[in-house]
């Protein structure tokens, strides 16, 4: 049974004569059967040849059965060049005289012969050599050597932008041919190159890798194609549609695939025909598979950390390229996670942050780490517990608890709590004037004290100037001596505690100094609890 309909005979003959591969011919004939594209290209070529041969053997007076427009004889006049190619001004082959089956048959055979062994003038070989088992094995070798864990895969392709130009040229050639025959053709009917390629390559990759193809998979296998021989074929579009080609950051060339597609949508058909042959000519060389890449979707790990050192920043402390302290909370945790997950990089986030000289006690501060492109993604609960223990054994400055795998969406709960929840602190305070127990007792009775805090001077270099209203929900004092006491505070998240104590030169009102009517300063500060109910607690 023929893979194409009788109405497509003229299209088949035109494209094969121009050097189009059998699979691209199927695309332009709107063949939607995935199985057909997976047949060996030589078999497809033979099927198309047989189709043309059988068509030419029919009676010359036979008409196509089409309802609108009326049927017309499908006979292509044999061109002197023998390949039925269109020239630069868009001229199309003419129909042969009625009943002239001999010349049409010769043209059909010549078209088939000229297509065999040539690089496709539309796909530049992507639906030819790059569908073969040898290339599939090359891709799979790359995947296996990268040593990823995965249970499915998604396959993506990056095509040279000039393929869009060549596809437009081929389509215009077909369109003109069909117009001459009085037959309709919609551009949307053409099967897209990427779609056809994936129809062919997916089952081969799935069999070789031993896992199914899944459009929602987090593991991506990608191939980047290039074709240097035809790189400049897009350049005429920059003259015709200059607004479509503007320099952009991180783009090596203005001739991106999207820019080319945008220009092709704008350029007039007659202008296109002046600059590009329809259908396009066959190149000398195949596409190059520049890169075969693998990438795993990010894995997210969450937990809580305690910080016991007053000389440890949360994140690396680097000023003007100079490291101020040798380590950080982020680095002490990430060092182990990066090694175990074999990730390329990471992103650390937490529910708020403490200063370098502030300890975090109690149940700790919630944190999350995004591990980018991890090779290993599957960890049992016991393995996560051993990883947590390895982090805790590596340093006496921090401890981690409730270490677990989480989803990206779950991290949002941590960030919500950063501003909405409460936090509990313990501050060691000094006063310049002597105090007695009764001088600070009134602090215990203060509830829901409203503060107005201008952006502190110490963070003004990285935060915008603003006045923030914050609440001190409750306080309790603990007398130590005439110049020292400890204050326990339960506050709204985002309150600057140090500034609430010393006033920050009047930028926080009221403050402990103004409440006590004397100068006050903070000597030590501990975070005793961060009241965010995330991540879930795990049994020891």
From TrEMBL:
Residues 120-294 form the Pus10 N-terminal eukaryotes domain. Keywords: Coiled coil, Cytoplasm, Isomerase, Metal-binding, Mitochondrion, Nucleus, tRNA processing, Zinc. Coiled coil: none annotated. Gene3D superfamilies: 1.10.10.2050, 3.30.70.2510, 3.30.70.3190. It holds the Pfam family Pus10_N_euk. It catalyses: uridine(55) in tRNA = pseudouridine(55) in tRNA; uridine(54) in tRNA = pseudouridine(54) in tRNA. InterPro entries: PsdUridine_synth_cat_dom_sf, Pus10-like, Pus10-like_C, Pus10_N_euk. GO terms for molecular function: metal ion binding; RNA binding; tRNA pseudouridine(55) synthase activity. Residues 300-531 form the Pus10-like C-terminal domain. One of its GO terms (biological process) is tRNA pseudouridine synthesis. Residues 87-106 are annotated as: Disordered. GO terms for cellular component: mitochondrion; nucleus. Its EC number is 5.4.99.25. It is found in: Cytoplasm; Mitochondrion; Nucleus. Its main location: cytoplasm. Belongs to the pseudouridine synthase Pus10 family. This is tRNA pseudouridine synthase Pus10. The lineage of its organism: Eukaryota, Metazoa, Chordata, Craniata, Vertebrata. The gene is Pus10.
């Amino acid at each position: 049974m023929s893979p194409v309909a009788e109405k497509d005979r003229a299209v088949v003959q035109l494209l094969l004569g121009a050097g189009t591969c059998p699979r691209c011919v199927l695309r332009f004939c709107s063949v939607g059967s995935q199985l057909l594209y997976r047949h060996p290209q030589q078999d497809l070529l033979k099927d198309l040849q047989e189709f043309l041969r059988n068509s030419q053997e029919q009676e010359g007076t036979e008409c196509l059965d089409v309802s609108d427009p009326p049927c017309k004889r499908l006979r292509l006049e044999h061109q002197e060049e023998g390949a039925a190619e269109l020239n630069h001004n868009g001229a199309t082959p003419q129909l042969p005289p009625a009943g002239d089956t001999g010349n049409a048959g010769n043209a059909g055979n010549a078209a088939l012969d000229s297509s065999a062994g040539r690089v496709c003038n539309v796909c530049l070989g992507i639906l030819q050599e790059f569908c073969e088992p040898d290339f599939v094995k090359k891709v799979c070798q790359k995947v296996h050597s990268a040593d990823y864990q995965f249970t499915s895969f998604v396959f993506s392709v990056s095509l040279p932008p000039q393929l869009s130009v060549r596809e437009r040229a081929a389509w215009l050639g077909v369109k003109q041919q069909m117009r001459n025959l009085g037959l309709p053709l919609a551009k949307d009917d053409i099967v897209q190159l990427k779609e056809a390629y994936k129809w062919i390559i997916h089952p081969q990759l799935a069999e070789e890798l031993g896992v199914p193809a899944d459009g929602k998979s987090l593991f991506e296998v990608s191939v980047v194609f290039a074709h240097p021989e035809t790189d400049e074929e897009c350049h005429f579009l920059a003259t015709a549609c200059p607004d479509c080609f503007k320099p952009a950051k991180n783009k090596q060339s203005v001739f991106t695939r999207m820019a080319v597609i945008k220009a092709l949508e704008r350029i007039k058909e007659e202008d296109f025909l002046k600059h590009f042959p329809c259908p396009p000519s066959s190149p000398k060389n195949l596409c190059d598979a520049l890169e075969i890449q693998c990438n795993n979707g990010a894995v997210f790990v969450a937990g809580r950390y305690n910080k016991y050192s007053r000389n440890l920043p949360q994140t690396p402390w680097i000023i003007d390229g100079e490291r101020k302290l040798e380590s950080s909370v982020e680095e002490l945790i990430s060092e182990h996670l990066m090694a175990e997950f074999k990730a390329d990089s990471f992103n650390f986030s937490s529910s708020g942050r403490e200063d370098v000289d502030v300890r975090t006690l109690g149940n700790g501060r919630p944190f999350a780490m995004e591990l980018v492109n991890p090779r290993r993604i599957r960890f049992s609960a016991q393995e996560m517990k051993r990883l947590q223990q390895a982090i805790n054994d590596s340093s006496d400055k921090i401890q981690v608890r409730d270490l677990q795998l989480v989803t990206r969406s779950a991290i949002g709960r941590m960030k919500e709590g950063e501003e909405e929840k409460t936090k509990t602190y313990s501050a060691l305070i000094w006063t310049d004037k002597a105090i007695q127990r009764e001088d600070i007792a009134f602090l215990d009775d203060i509830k829901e004290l409203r503060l107005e805090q201008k952006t502190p001077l110490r963070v003004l270099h990285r935060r915008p100037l603003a006045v923030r209203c914050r609440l001190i929900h409750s306080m309790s004092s603990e007398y130590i001596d005439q110049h020292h006491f400890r204050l326990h505070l339960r506050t709204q998240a985002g309150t600057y505690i140090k500034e609430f104590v010393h006033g920050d030169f009047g930028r926080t009102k009221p403050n402990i100094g103004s409440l006590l009517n004397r100068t006050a300063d903070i000597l030590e500060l501990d975070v005793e609890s961060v009241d965010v109910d995330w991540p879930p607690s795990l049994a020891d």
